[in-house]
């Protein structure tokens, strides 16, 4: 059994969760579930980032202590994980003592090694991004990009981490590990970033300006820079489970690839004598109805409310089906409903009810054994083998959208097989051979349905379980064994009906 450690980014608690947070959780969950199905020993971490100036300011604005503010917002993220059926093993908060302890130990270790020094800094600071800026960060006209918000010039003493001296090592590491970043073209972006000299990283903030953070173990007048604190969470969570380190994948948004995850993090670990993660997976962004997602303008989807209205698995399916991992995509109610109706309700949902209805009508609700294998059955079985092998390969390459397309192609073919065999006509015949074909047809469509939904298990775990239940079937412990065409369902008593994807009523716009 291979150990497999995967993490999401930890979400900053300065605001409530949105669709982007939901997508990252679901994407990581799909990977984690698939690796478990393949037999790996998976440890899946998610959580929240709770320190920093923005949290301190938001708490002050509400007139409550920062810890209370963090407690309230972090619970929203924890609830979202539960709502979306996320199978995380751990939920970490950077205000937890276990995390503070590891951060302080790492800081002290680097300080003792001479990797951290104190110096005066004069320059520009972005409160929104909580980072110091350089002239190269400006727009061509000299202004600051909107992402930085208000930028002020400051002069203050701080502690710096010797980032620059590891630049050559990092470049060599990336060239030796061409799959360090997925998609691979983003690795080229990291190397482009590293083509310019790095500055040493300011890793402290004076308490006179920021109190809400982890106090430096070697100077009580300063707290730790939020990124130097936050990144360590991945290591904190498994420090007592060393078999899981280094992480197999950190799943993150493309906006925090460079420099935090692809530059700061591996260099921090290298300096501390800790092995860097194996890979980073940088996913794209969602727009809403073709425009940038914004709660203030109302161009916003509340993932939890949307899941309540349309179903958790329907939302999970749409996000994974619609976005190619690494690329951007657009979320619109019209496109969601198009996929919901055509693919989930009319294709999969229809197949489920055809199987249940015809088994109830023509076989007293008990699935018969297949008795013959002629061209239609052989064609469907051959398509299954092709589909199964392609889907597994696509999953391993994170091409989940294409894997779902192939899976639903097989479900479409199963519905077409029903039309070819026309069991309603066979049931009217008095010929013995037609009775044999009828029993074979019922067994074949039920087995094809069982197999098809087995491929959906990582993306739609709840739906898979429901369909197995209405087929009167309990899956075995070894997922790969479940992918073999056979007669496992023979003698199973099926339900009379199942409503998996009810028709949405009266929707003209996404739930705001």
TrEMBL record:
<dbReference type="InterPro" id="IPR033911">
    <property type="entry name" value="MetRS_core"/>
</dbReference>
<keyword id="KW-0648">Protein biosynthesis</keyword>
<dbReference type="InterPro" id="IPR009080">
    <property type="entry name" value="tRNAsynth_Ia_anticodon-bd"/>
</dbReference>
<dbReference type="InterPro" id="IPR014729">
    <property type="entry name" value="Rossmann-like_a/b/a_fold"/>
</dbReference>
<dbReference type="InterPro" id="IPR014758">
    <property type="entry name" value="Met-tRNA_synth"/>
</dbReference>
<keyword id="KW-0547">Nucleotide-binding</keyword>
<dbReference type="InterPro" id="IPR015413">
    <property type="entry name" value="Methionyl/Leucyl_tRNA_Synth"/>
</dbReference>
<keyword id="KW-0436">Ligase</keyword>
<feature type="domain" description="Methionyl/Leucyl tRNA synthetase">
    <location>
        <begin position="153"/>
        <end position="356"/>
    </location>
</feature>
<dbReference type="Pfam" id="PF09334">
    <property type="entry name" value="tRNA-synt_1g"/>
</dbReference>
<comment type="function">
    <text>Is required not only for elongation of protein synthesis but also for the initiation of all mRNA translation through initiator tRNA(fMet) aminoacylation.</text>
</comment>
<comment type="similarity">
    <text>Belongs to the class-I aminoacyl-tRNA synthetase family.</text>
</comment>
<keyword id="KW-0067">ATP-binding</keyword>
<dbReference type="GO" id="GO:0004825">
    <property type="term" value="F:methionine-tRNA ligase activity"/>
</dbReference>
<dbReference type="InterPro" id="IPR023457">
    <property type="entry name" value="Met-tRNA_synth_2"/>
</dbReference>
<dbReference type="GO" id="GO:0006431">
    <property type="term" value="P:methionyl-tRNA aminoacylation"/>
</dbReference>
<dbReference type="GO" id="GO:0005524">
    <property type="term" value="F:ATP binding"/>
</dbReference>
<feature type="domain" description="Methionyl/Leucyl tRNA synthetase">
    <location>
        <begin position="5"/>
        <end position="136"/>
    </location>
</feature>
<keyword id="KW-0030">Aminoacyl-tRNA synthetase</keyword>
<dbReference type="InterPro" id="IPR041872">
    <property type="entry name" value="Anticodon_Met"/>
</dbReference>
<protein>
    <recommendedName>
        <fullName>Methionine--tRNA ligase</fullName>
        <ecNumber>6.1.1.10</ecNumber>
    </recommendedName>
</protein>
């Amino acid at each position: 059994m291979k150990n497999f450690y995967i993490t999401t980014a930890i979400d900053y608690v300065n605001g409530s969760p949105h669709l982007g947070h939901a997508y990252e959780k679901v994407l990581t969950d799909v990977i984690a579930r698939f690796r478990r199905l393949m037999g790996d020993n998976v440890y899946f971490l998610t959580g929240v980032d709770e320190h920093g100036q923005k949290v301190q300011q938001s708490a002050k604005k509400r007139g409550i202590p920062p810890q209370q503010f963090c407690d309230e917002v972090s619970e929203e993220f924890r609830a979202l994980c539960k709502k979306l059926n996320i199978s995380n093993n751990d939920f970490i908060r950077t205000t937890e003592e276990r995390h503070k302890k590891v951060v302080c130990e790492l800081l002290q270790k680097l300080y003792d090694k001479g990797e951290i020094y104190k110096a005066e800094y004069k320059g520009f600071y972005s409160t929104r991004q909580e980072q110091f800026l350089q002239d190269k960060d400006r727009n061509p006209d000299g202004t600051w990009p909107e992402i930085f918000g208000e930028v002020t010039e400051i002069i203050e003493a701080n502690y710096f981490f010797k980032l620059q001296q590891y630049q050559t090592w990092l470049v060599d590491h990336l060239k030796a590990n061409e799959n360090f970043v997925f998609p691979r073209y983003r690795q080229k972006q990291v190397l482009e970033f590293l083509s310019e000299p790095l500055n040493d990283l300011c890793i402290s903030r004076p308490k006179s300006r920021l109190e809400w953070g982890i106090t430096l173990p070697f100077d009580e007048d300063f707290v730790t820079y939020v990124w130097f604190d936050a990144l360590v969470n991945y290591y904190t969570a498994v420090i007592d489970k060393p078999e899981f380190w280094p992480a197999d994948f950190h799943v993150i948004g493309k906006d925090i690839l460079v420099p935090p995850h692809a530059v700061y993090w591996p260099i921090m670990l290298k300096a501390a004598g800790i092995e860097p993660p194996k890979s980073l997976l940088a996913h794209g962004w969602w727009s809403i109805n073709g425009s940038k997602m914004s709660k203030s303008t109302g161009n916003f989807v509340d993932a939890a409310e949307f899941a309540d209205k349309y179903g958790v698995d329907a939302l999970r399916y749409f996000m994974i089906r619609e976005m190619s991992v690494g690329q951007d995509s657009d979320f619109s109610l019209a496109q969601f409903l198009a996929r919901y109706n055509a693919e989930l309700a009319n294709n999969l949902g229809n197949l489920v009810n055809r199987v249940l209805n015809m088994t109830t009508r023509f076989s007293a609700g008990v699935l018969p054994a297949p008795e013959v294998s002629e061209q239609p059955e052989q064609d469907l079985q051959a398509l299954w083998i092709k589909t199964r092998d392609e889907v597994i390969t696509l999953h391993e390459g994170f091409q989940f959208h294409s894997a779902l397309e192939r899976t639903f192609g097989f479900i479409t073919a199963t519905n077409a097989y029903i039309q070819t065999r026309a069991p309603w006509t066979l049931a009217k015949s008095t010929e013995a051979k037609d009775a044999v074909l009828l029993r074979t047809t019922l067994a074949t469509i039920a087995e094809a349905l069982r197999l098809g939904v087995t491929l959906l298990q990582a993306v739609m775990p709840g739906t898979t379980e429901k369909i197995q239940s209405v087929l009167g079937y309990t899956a075995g412990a070894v997922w790969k064994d479940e992918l073999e065409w056979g007669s496992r369902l023979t003698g199973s008593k099926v339900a009379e009906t199942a409503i998996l994807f009810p028709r949405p009523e009266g929707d003209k716009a996404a739930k705001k």
